[in-house]
Recover the amino acids of this structure.
């Protein structure tokens, strides 16, 4: 079969390698350079290696608990069941995970995990090491790579996806295929503050929406609790808190215990909201890692140690300011357990997909694992008999009537949309704020000209996703996981 894979993070690279090794002709298309995107920025690691007293069953239980009751148990079972093989595969492909003196894998622990089960590389450079190894494998494989190619749309013929339309060197071109695997990542650029790179504009989900693919759970955007609140967004890994660092308010108090008995190791949505509430009242939040000592911080977290020092902080001797930031989209294109979507000929893997694993809140270090597990499963399902049947398992969301365009709202700019999403469709939401946001976004979309440049297509994509996200959030009338409704408006500042 002729396969087009769009995206070159862990999910896309894994799918491309497995498809090529199965004998398919594979073309990998990527928006920028091969290996760019979110994967090389991932710090924490890959969950799924179990020490004494731990097991896949316990990992599944932690995943289901973090998902706030909305995770699909069958998808979670697949994740933890296939995880060991995928981690072993990464090692076989050259990923150098950190090891103890006796050669055993070093295991870290992050929030909402009951055990230390996370393998890491380079201390806090796990994603970069995985990307390096997989990119090298792709370069050696008989895989055609097309870089700097922007996904414009899916090509649909008689109800089936038959390829993609891309923008390359300022010219449109169609690439035909028997099957398209989308691995285009998430949409952190919907928000003012995000850990995602500039290219994370939700292009794959937007293209799938325009083609008629089913999506779900777009209201569940995970905000990482700890991003350095000085200079460009820089993630401070959750593993730092797993090692013992604490969060302090302006009076030096560990305030997260007010929200959850696990304090700093509570699920991410809870920790992020606790910080956001402090910020809403003008109170700075500090991450205190001084108890770990300079030598341990430099050895375990060399990248964070270097960047914090470059920005003028000596985190071995003083707490550092942090803020939440949009990090990971739990929703996306609905898939079955093999990556099939509601559109024949279209698969989706990684953050672009809604597998059901994460529910309303992702467990830390399950994202790289998900990309590896479902990337391999999608490749194995190519050409195999199988039928997408996940829609019957979903509770339909009520229809939201789109508002009429209004005059007098702020002119569209990407920055204006990001501020609106941050303030009204962010960590703390209200019905009125969501409705107001939807009015403004819909007005922007209906008045926008047809896009021609790559930047204009990105703007069109984030407007489409912003509208779909606000609509999904307004339709979900009860707080759950990352979707949290408050009784009164709150401005989240950072």
């Amino acid at each position: 079969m002729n396969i087009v894979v769009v995206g070159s993070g862990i999910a896309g690279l894994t799918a491309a390698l497995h498809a090529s090794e199965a004998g398919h002709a594979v073309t990998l298309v990527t928006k920028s350079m091969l290996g760019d995107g979110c994967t090389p920025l991932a710090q924490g690691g890959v969950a799924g290696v179990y020490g004494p007293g731990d097991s896949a069953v316990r990992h599944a239980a932690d995943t289901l608990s973090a998902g706030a009751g909305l995770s699909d148990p069958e998808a979670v079972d697949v994740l933890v069941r296939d995880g060991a093989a995928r981690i072993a595969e990464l090692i076989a492909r050259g990923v150098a995970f950190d090891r103890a003196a006796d050669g055993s894998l070093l295991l870290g622990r992050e929030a909402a995990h009951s055990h230390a089960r996370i393998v890491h590389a380079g201390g806090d450079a796990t994603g970069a090491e995985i990307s390096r190894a997989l990119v090298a494998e792709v370069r050696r494989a008989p895989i055609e790579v097309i870089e700097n190619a922007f996904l414009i749309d899916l090509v649909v013929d008689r109800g089936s996806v038959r390829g993609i339309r891309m923008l390359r060197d300022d010219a449109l071109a169609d690439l035909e295929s028997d099957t398209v695997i989308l691995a285009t990542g998430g949409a952190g650029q919907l928000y003012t503050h995000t850990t995602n790179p500039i290219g994370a504009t939700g292009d794959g989900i937007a293209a799938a929406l325009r083609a008629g693919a089913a999506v779900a759970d777009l209201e569940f955007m995970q905000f990482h609790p700890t991003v350095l609140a000085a200079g460009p967004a820089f993630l401070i890994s959750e593993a730092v808190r797993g090692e013992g660092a604490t969060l302090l308010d302006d009076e030096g108090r560990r305030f997260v215990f007010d929200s959850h008995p696990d304090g700093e190791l509570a699920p991410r949505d809870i920790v992020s909201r606790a910080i956001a509430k402090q910020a809403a009242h003008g109170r700075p939040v500090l991450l205190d890692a001084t108890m770990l000592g300079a030598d341990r911080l430099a050895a375990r977290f060399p990248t964070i140690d270097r960047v914090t020092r470059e920005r003028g902080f000596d985190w071995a001797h003083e707490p550092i300011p942090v803020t939440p930031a949009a990090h990971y989209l739990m929703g996306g294109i609905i898939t079955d357990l093999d990556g099939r979507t509601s559109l024949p000929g279209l698969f989706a893997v990684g953050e672009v997909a809604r597998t059901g694993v994460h529910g309303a809140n992702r467990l830390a270090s399950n994202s790289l694992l998900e990309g590896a597990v479902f990337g391999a499963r999608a490749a194995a399902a190519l050409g195999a008999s199988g039928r997408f049947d996940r829609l019957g398992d979903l509770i339909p969301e009520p229809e939201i009537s789109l508002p009429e365009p209004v005059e007098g709202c702020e002119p569209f700019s990407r920055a204006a949309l990001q501020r609106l999403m941050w303030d009204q469709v962010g960590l703390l939401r209200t019905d009125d704020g969501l409705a107001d946001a939807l009015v403004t976004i819909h007005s922007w979309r209906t008045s926008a000209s047809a896009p021609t440049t790559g930047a204009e297509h990105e703007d069109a994509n984030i407007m489409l996703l912003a509208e779909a996200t606000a609509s999904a959030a307004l339709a979900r009338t009860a707080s759950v996981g990352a979707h949290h409704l408050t009784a009164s408006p709150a401005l989240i500042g950072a």
